[in-house]
Amino acid sequence: MVTKSAHRLRAILLLANAIVLTIVINQLSALYFFRLDLTQEGRYTIKPQTEKLLESLDDAVLIEVFLAGDLNAGFSRFQKSIREMLEEFSVRSNGKVTFLFTDPLQAQSEKSRNDFMASLVDKGLKPLNIIEDKDGKRSEKIVFPGAMVSYANMETPVNLLKNSSTQQGAQNALNQSIETLEFELASAISRLTNSGLKKIAWIKGHGEADSLAVASIQNALLEQFDLFKVELPQVNTLTGYDLALIARPTRPWSTEDLYKLDQFILQGGKAMFFVDNIRVDMKKISEGEDYGAPVDHGLQELLFRYGVRINPDLIQDLAALPLPVVTGEAGGRSQITPIPWPFFPIVTDYADHPASRNLDASVFRFVSSIDTVKAEGIRKTVLAKTSPYTRLVQMPAPIRIADLREQLNPQDFRSGQLPVVLMLEGNFQSLFKNRIPPEHVDATGRRDEGVFSRIVVVGDGDYILNGLDPRTGEPTPAGYDPATRQTFANQDLIMNTVAFLIDDQGIINARNRKVTVRLLDKEKIRTDRSLLQWMNLGLPVVVMALFGMALSWRRKNRYAKF
User: What would the CATH number be for the domain defined by 198-504?
Assistant: First the structure.
């Protein structure tokens, strides 16, 4: 028979073993660090490329987040996700990444608050005005969903809220912003800590877009890369650059310039082409009509050899940007109605690719369709494509604003989804294979088959352009539409694609992060409210009470004989 003292001794031994085991585990955890991410989508697991960047920091990084104060439920969730990501950054960097949250509205006086918010705007952070209706009352509040990242007396702004323009719901915008947190923060740290910036050649010499027409993109590129304007006819080679950007050429490329670009790509250089195959004059259209004219830029043969063909047509899409049109007159004043202009497709269908996922809508203006052609060993990825409700207009053909007044027949728009942005990657074959090199070029190290490279082709040269603010004369962002006052994601897609093409650290892969939001079923909550409340509040209490009663009954029966 087992005595009470034996039971007591066994209990003491079990307790002592538990204490010793706890101490041993604590000692081992101090020597061997690890963290477990038990979420299904790996929400708290950062990419190896980001981890390598953080582990290599040789100085402190301070991240000041300005999303603080009294926030609604959505932004509170966003703030929590930012904090969790920064905590992970701090751990992976061995404490070299520190952070704090600052409320821009915490200043005592209104003037101090306004001055502080103005300074944040001057530094590049974008404010957001939140309007909410609660209990029949409307309230407005300005928030700054962004941060300043500082390193070695340098700083850079990071706007963390993406896709806030309205093409998607607010919850989707917040969720996609959470998914891009790692990429945005890691990119900012990489820009500050990387002294050797990548070099981009903005190709000139063939009537390419330049100056104020592309100032928005050029300024954005200058924040992250070294950008050089290169008159291609005046140089022998593009050696030394990482990427060549061709922005809407309007004059023919010479054979010599084609050879220089061809050899640059075959030697591993990357390239982006923004090409108009059809030239359209909006001024002529506003005055009556215009006939799309072919553009003789001379790039067709080169692109065909690489595996892509831009067709001599224009895409019309029922999902299109509204154009203000005079539809009548009343009281001596013209009546203006916004009517979707099928020649200005709005694109929302992107590939699940680091360069294009989690983007808001893009707008194209007079875009041509793109076909792929056979090219051995070349992989093609459609980064963006139209809606299914499209049709192709073969050029030349009359283009008139007056046609907007006519009722469109959806049955005419059956061309399906059409590619407008295409990425090609692999070992390209030279356009000059089995051909004598052009005169007056440097043929040193000539290649007929290239090393691995990538190019991106956009069938719309206007995609990269920006407008000008009529009040200030300053460039507006690429993709900004003054009629709707909406900024489309043109610039985001361009910057992400450039980063993917020349990002040898692989940080762009952090854009593949996926966070699943498991929202409650509102209809089920409404119909089963009482049952759900009882299950969440009453059931745990009942279960614990039953468990306590069962435990008490077991102990009573076990020790009754003693």
Answer: 3.40.50
